[in-house]
Amino acid sequence: MIAGILLWSVTIAQLMLVAAMACNAYRLMRGPRAQDRVLCLDAMYVGAMLLVLTVGIRTGTSVYFEAALIIAVLGFVSSIALAKFLMRGEVIE
Amino acid sequence: MTHAADLPAWAALLTAFLLLVGAGLTLLGAIGTLRFASFFERVHAPTLGTSWGTGAIVLASIVCFSALGSRLVVHEILIGVFITITTPVTLMLLARAALYRDRTEGEGNVPPSSQLRHPVANIGTDDGGDGNATPSPSDADKS
Asked: Which pTM does this prediction carry?
């Protein structure tokens, strides 16, 4: 019964994270300007990272931790690069 | 989900609660990006997911794997620390870029740049702005 509670809560959490990423994707497509799209891309990176973490809790293996860490690092670097591009017009000056 | 039977009850319930809290906060932040009107309101919304959304799910992972391995597993803290450090950097850089774009294109009602902070730069822009300043009275005269 306890295992059932954990299974259901992991499933509900994954559905909520997918819904959050869907909201972000809608704003990504609709966003009036480029900065809205970059903001939602960053939020989608965080959502994907949390989704990978919940998959790790679901399967009980710690392999997914490294994947989540890599997604977090790549999200940071890409968001910084895109913000820099919006500011200056080029990434590396 | 075969490992869930191995978890003690308190760990499973705590993991379930923290997972629901974290995912719910992330969903609230994502709904906020849909409902806020301007970009500078919208830039606040995803921080719900990056502060306690990430924190709660990382805590859930720590509780789950610590109870499974019967030892303290804290390497998930790395993700929490990394997200906590990098999110303000990203969002402040993005908000500055958006402010710069809005000022140069004259869109939105953003405040003008501070006249006091860069006096030398403002003298430079005033000299360059003479070409911009002179047509406007002539346009007013024409009309």
From this structure: 0.81
